[in-house]
Amino acid sequence: MKAKLGVMVSSLLLVACSTVPSPRFFSLVQEQQAPVAQAANKAVLVQTVKVPAQLDRKQIVLDLGTAQEVQLLNDYQWAAALSEELQQALSVNLTQGLGVPSAEMSRQEDRIPYWRIDVDVQRFESKYGQSVRQEYSWRLSPVHFQGNTMLCRITLQQPAGSGVEGLALAHQELVQRFSLVMMQQMQSGQAPQAEGVIQSLQCLS
């Protein structure tokens, strides 16, 4: 009897494990974009992306909007920890958008001119069925060529579509918009005016 009971328990455990849904994964990297006009003619390097510890995880974090309460979605995750996902997305957006290589593989003795980018994430909010909001500070520094170092801060926000898919797509679009701001800096030496999804934008140089 005990043997039969053990077999039954094992079978139930196997059934339970087999019905656990696999998490769905989302990426901040968009499909390949055609290069914009007037390429920067400099390589780029997204050196660092710092994300607050409570957000730097694979699980998508929902902002519940009450008393700083959040919810982790184990069934809906980014393809990598948020800092890695952002670093990859920014690097892809910038190199493809400008039509230039990444300086990541260059050696110091090569003296390749490139823009170094260091990003500090202040906010990365997801309000289910409502909106997404991102806030960044970043430093854009010329390496191996003459240029102005710029220190900037930006706030972006836009409505989100339905479901977690809508949140992920809205975040992806804001990361792309943030990338376009940096592209304009590299091309013209100044950032655009705040408008549309860009709620505020300030730079010092």
What topology does this entry show?
Layout: H1 2-18, E1 24-26, E2 43-50, E3 59-63, E4 70-78, H2 82-98, E5 114-127, E6 131-143, E7 150-159, H3 163-188, E8 198-204
Parallel strand pairs: 1-4, 2-5
Antiparallel strand pairs: 3-4, 5-6, 6-7, 7-8
Helix pairs in contact: 2-3
Describe the fold and architecture:
This protein is of the alpha/beta class and 205 residues long. Helices cover 29% and strands 34% of the residues. It is built from three helices and eight strands; from the N terminus they run αββββαβββαβ. The protein has helices at residues 2-18, 82-98, 163-188; strands at residues 24-26, 43-50, 59-63, 70-78, 114-127, 131-143, 150-159, 198-204. The protein has a five-stranded mixed beta sheet with strand order 2-5-6-7-8, with helices on one face. A hairpin with a 6-residue loop joins β3 and β4. α2 (82-98) crosses α3 (163-188). It starts with a helix and ends with a strand. Residues 1-13 have low confidence and may be disordered.
